[in-house]
Design brief:
Elements (H helix, E strand, L loop, with lengths): L3 E3 L2 H14 L8 E6 L4 E2 L2 E2 L2 E5 L12 E6 H6 L2 H14 E3 L5 E3 L8 H7 L6 H8 L4 H6 L15 H6 L14 E4 L11
Parallel strand pairs: 2-6
Antiparallel strand pairs: 1-2, 3-4, 5-6, 5-9, 7-8
Helix pairs in contact: 1-3
Bound molecules: zinc ion.
The site of zinc ion has 6 residues, from helix 3 and strand 9.
Length: 193
């Protein structure tokens, strides 16, 4: 049994829909989609998907700008809304400018649940994150101003140092060589890949 398999038509259709809805900049991009049979698990976290920019020397073999895989085992467990968000997430890593040049974008935020619980949206550029989550959590709007979601004084933090730690919104490690992983769900068991 191969590690990768052909993506079903419903996955392709969803990726096309998400590009149409929110990723105009990828309308001309060539994106290859694969299903991986099982999500790789590292330190108790499953990686549900991964996107990668195609290296120039690989294009002779696979003529794509980006290749994205989704883990088939997790895909089955996700709701349609979660699948849409996961596709949106991976497509957000994939950038193409008007000249057709491709690049990978990093996550906007990464944080520990415990740190969020203790300090709220503390980092210097947290307003954008608060604006993004507010429509989803009405109670945050009610809490704003009482100190719970107050940012820690930015002068205590060198923003470059903070951003340097922004390797993954979901706790994945720093990106390297143009790839990014997505791993925000902790499965019940902890096993190495
Ligand atoms: Zn990601």
């Amino acid at each position: 049994m191969g590690k990768y398999k052909r993506a079903p038509e419903e996955v392709i259709a969803l990726v096309e829909q998400v590009i149409y809805d929110w990723h105009d900049e990828l309308a001309e991009a060539r994106i290859g989609i694969l299903m991986r049979a099982e999500a790789p698990v590292s330190k108790g976290r499953a990686t549900m998907s991964k996107s990668k920019k195609m290296a120039d020397d690989m294009r002779a073999y696979l003529d794509y700008d980006f290749v994205i895989w989704f883990a088939a085992d997790w895909w089955l467990l996700l709701t349609e809304e979660q699948r849409t968000a996961l596709v949106d997430h991976e497509l957000s890593h994939c950038r193409m400018n008007e000249a057709g040049e491709t690049s990978m974008a990093d996550h906007d935020i990464t944080e520990f649940n415990d740190v969020l619980a203790r300090h709220g949206f503390w980092w210097p550029s947290a307003e954008k994150t608060m604006e993004a989550v507010q429509p989803h959590f009405e109670f945050i709007a009610e809490m704003s101003g009482n100190g719970v979601v107050e940012a820690v004084s930015p002068e205590h933090f060198n923003e470059a140092d903070v951003l340097d730690q922004v390797g993954g919104m979901f706790g994945d490690s720093k990106q390297s060589n143009g790839s990014a992983t997505h791993a925000d769900i902790e499965p019940g068991e902890d096993e190495d890949e």
